[in-house]
Amino acid sequence: MSQYNFVETDQVAAPVQKLKTNRSLIKFILLSIVTLGIYGLVEVMSIGIDLNTIVGRRDGKKTINYLLVALLLQNITCGIAGLVWYYSLSARIESETKYRDIQYDFGTSTYWLWYILGSLILVGPFIYFYRLLKAMNLLCEDYNAKC
């Protein structure tokens, strides 16, 4: 009688895919204007999905889908859900750039300084989104190169 060994795992290996590395602020703004904001929603949603792909196995967390936040939770929480979503997104990106030893300054301080306080000078959120898109491009490039 032969003996069989079965290995049980908690995680199923996800297929490796190349992530988008060409995000830019100009394209984000222009296509958001042309599509009446739909492109912006989809792009931010894809940032959350890509971040889950990059970081999900390591930290065991999952960023909630931004469409759920934008279309449902924003109205219920008077905008607080969106602020919390961007803060937690910034924190995860900061953690992952440090873990991957990517020399780029982006994180919760960028969120507070540019997205929140920078909105008083109107250009702050644009600087935040520029830095967010660049940080995601760097993370995706690193992920594509190593996976």
Task: Describe this structure as you would to a colleague.
This protein is mainly α. It has one domain. The chain contains 6 helices and no strands. It has helices spanning 25-34, 38-59, 66-76, 80-99, 108-116, 124-146. It is globular.
How do the helices and strands line up, and which of them pair or pack?
Blueprint: H1 25-34, H2 38-59, H3 66-76, H4 80-99, H5 108-116, H6 124-146
Helix pairs in contact: 1-2, 2-6, 3-4, 4-5, 4-6, 5-6
**Termini distance?**
41 Å
Strand runs, count: 0
Overall mean confidence score, pLDDT: 89
Shape: globular
Largest sheet, in brief, is: none
Taking Cα atoms only, what radius of gyration do you get, to the nearest Å? 18 Å
* Beta-strand content: under 5%
Structural class: mainly alpha
Order of helices and strands: HHHHHH
Count of the separate structural domains: 1
The helix tally amounts to: 6
Tell me roughly what share of residues is in helical segments: 55-70%
The low-confidence runs, each spanning 5 or more residues with pLDDT under 50, are 1-10
Concise synopsis of the structure shown:
With 147 residues, the protein is an all-alpha fold. The protein has one domain (25-146).
Please supply descriptive tags for the structure shown above.
147 residues, mainly alpha, globular, disordered N terminus
